[in-house]
C-alpha cells in the first residue's frame, strides 16, 4: 500500500483556506472520484475507490494523509502533483 503525505504551510485565515480546499476537493472528486466530508471545522475525511485519508487544517498549515490501494498506486505522483499545484494556485496567488 502506498501513501500520500503532504504538509502545506500557508498564512491566511482558516475560513479562506477552508473555502479554497473545498474547491480543490471538488476537483479531485470530479477527476478521481475521491469524495470528501468535513467531520469538523478542521478535519475532512477522504474516501474513494482505493483511497482513504484525512485532511486536517491547522492554524498555519494543511496536512493531507491518504492511503492508496493497489489500483491507485500508479496515480500517486500524479495525484500528489495535482494537489500541490492546486494549493499553490490558490494560496500563492
The gist of it:
The protein has one domain: Double Stranded RNA Binding Domain, CATH 3.30.160.110.
Explained architecture:
With 93 residues, the protein is of the alpha+beta class. The chain has one domain (2-91): 2-Layer Sandwich (Double Stranded RNA Binding Domain). It is 38% helix and 35% strand. The protein has 2 helices and 5 strands; from the N terminus they run βαββββα. The protein has helices at 14-32, 76-91; strands spanning 2-9, 35-38, 43-48, 51-57, 61-68. It has a 5-stranded antiparallel sheet with strand order 1-5-4-3-2, with helices on one face. A hairpin with a 4-residue loop joins strand 2 and strand 3 (43-48). The longest helix has 19 residues, at 14-32. The chain is globular, with a radius of gyration of 12 Å. The mean pLDDT is 88.
Give the C-level CATH assignment.
Answer: Alpha Beta
What do the pLDDT scores average to? Answer: 88
Identify the quaternary structure here.
single chain
Largest sheet: 5 strands, antiparallel
Question: What is the strand arrangement across the widest sheet?
Answer: 1-5-4-3-2
Contiguous uncertain segments of 5+ residues: none
CATH topology assignment = Double Stranded RNA Binding Domain
* CATH architect. name: 2-Layer Sandwich
Helix content: 25-40%
Order of helices and strands: EHEEEEH
Q: What is the alpha-carbon Rg in Å?
A: 12 Å
Strand content: 35-45%
Number of strands: 5
What general form does the structure show? Answer: globular
Count every helix, treating DSSP H or I runs of 4 or more residues as helices.
2
Number of domains as seen in the coordinates: 1
What structural category do the secondary elements indicate? alpha+beta
Cα(first) to Cα(last) distance is 34 Å
CATH superfamily: Sirohaem synthase, central domain
